[in-house]
């Protein structure tokens, strides 16, 4: 029997600047040029988001005294500015690298028996900026990894991208039992926030945040007392509708998120079908899904909290308990939607909880442009 391929050393990092949701709401609501409908949408979107605080690399998005010309926020007038895409991406290149390195270093440090010299592959993930040499190169350089380490970057896939990154890492380990893969996701979503009368843009502004998540994927045996996830299998599905309801495009003033109010309903209609191929290899899981008993068969659910309404739909459609959505709701409340990094925060929440016991099954799901549903089945190792 082959050794289990495990996700180990799950670590998360956020920037130091905190955004209090109520304060951000008031700033967006007071912007010049907003019509009355947009003002009402701002109030509603921020108030029902399920978010209390978020984090950003933009230190100027506070009222603390700062020197120099403002780029994103004029503290004197309270006005959100409109920098071009180049200015936003230059900040991404400056701010993302330290987060990649910090998250990667934390994952290695949190994985007993693994040193930087053991890393054979690096997979970096992001959809909020670009630069080359890219973050995969910077991680190898700044962590002192070997010059022969294989590097891969998954870019511009959206909120689900950490799932295929973990799947790719597991495939490397299945092909080479000695592989040790460092997976890091960094998203700086707040670089693309801006004032607008467009409902989709307003909703995005009420949800998105910055953060980083990382972990080690390997078939090496766990150390005594270590907690991890065995990566059992992955699936991907594209829903037959929704291609235009969730999208991520590059505009002149940053990346433009399309997140229509139809997304929760689309997920509601298709989430069961997306889970069927994931559960099919195990008869008890397949039967549980077909009989609305999935919450009994799978103890923990790492659902990407794309928004409060998405979590509500998932909970209702799959008949999950309130407790099973706590990790996702707590992540949304405390960190916001950090695009692809978010599901790693949810998984870490589950792994550190007292409720997670050895042998518990975990279903992880993330949603993104397409509309794409990425899922994984895992087992707690404790």
UniProtKB/TrEMBL annotation:
Keywords: Transferase. Signal peptide: none annotated. It comes from the Bacteria. Residues 9-221 form the Chalcone/stilbene synthase N-terminal domain. The keyword Lipoprotein does not apply. The active site is at residue 159. Belongs to the thiolase-like superfamily. Chalcone/stilbene synthases family. This is Type III polyketide synthase.
């Amino acid at each position: 029997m082959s050794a289990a391929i495990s996700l180990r050393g799950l670590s998360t990092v956020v920037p130091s600047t905190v955004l209090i949701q109520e304060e951000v709401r008031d700033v967006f609501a007071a912007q010049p040029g907003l019509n009355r409908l947009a003002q009402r949408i701002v109030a509603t979107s921020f108030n029902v988001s399920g978010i209390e605080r978020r984090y950003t690399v933009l230190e100027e998005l506070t009222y603390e005294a700062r020197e120099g010309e403002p780029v994103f926020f004029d503290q004197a007038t309270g006005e959100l500015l409109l920098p071009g895409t180049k200015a936003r991406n230059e900040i991404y290149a400056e701010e993302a690298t330290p987060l990649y390195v910090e998250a990667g270093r934390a994952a290695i440090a949190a994985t007993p028996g693994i040193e930087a010299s053991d890393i054979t592959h690096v997979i970096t993930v992001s959809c909020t900026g670009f630069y080359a040499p890219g973050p995969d190169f910077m991680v190898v350089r700044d962590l002192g990894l070997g010059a022969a380490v294989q590097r891969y970057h998954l870019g511009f896939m959206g909120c689900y991208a950490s799932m295929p990154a973990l799947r790719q890492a597991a495939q490397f380990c299945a092909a080479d039992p000695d592989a040790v893969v460092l997976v890091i996701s960094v998203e700086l979503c707040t670089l693309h926030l801006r004032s607008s009368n467009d409902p989709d843009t307003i909703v995005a502004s009420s949800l998105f945040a910055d953060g980083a998540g990382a972990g080690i994927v390997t078939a090496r045996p766990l150390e005594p007392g270590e907690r991890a996830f065995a990566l059992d299998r992955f699936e991907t599905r594209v829903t037959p509708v929704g291609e235009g309801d969730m999208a991520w495009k590059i505009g002149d003033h940053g990346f433009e998120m399309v997140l229509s109010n139809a997304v929760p309903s689309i997920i509601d209609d298709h989430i069961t079908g997306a889970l069927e191929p994931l559960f099919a290899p195990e008869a008890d899981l397949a039967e549980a899904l077909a009989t609305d008993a999935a919450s009994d068969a799978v103890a923990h659910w790492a659902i990407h909290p794309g928004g409060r309404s998405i979590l509500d739909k998932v909970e209702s459609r799959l008949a999950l308990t309130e407790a099973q959505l706590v990790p996702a709701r707590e992540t949304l409340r405390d960190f916001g939607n950090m695009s692809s990094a978010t599901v790693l925060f949810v998984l870490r929440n589950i792994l550190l909880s007292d409720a997670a016991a050895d042998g518990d099954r975990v279903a992880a799901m993330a949603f993104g442009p397409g509309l794409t549903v990425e899922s994984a089945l895992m087992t707690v190792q404790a």
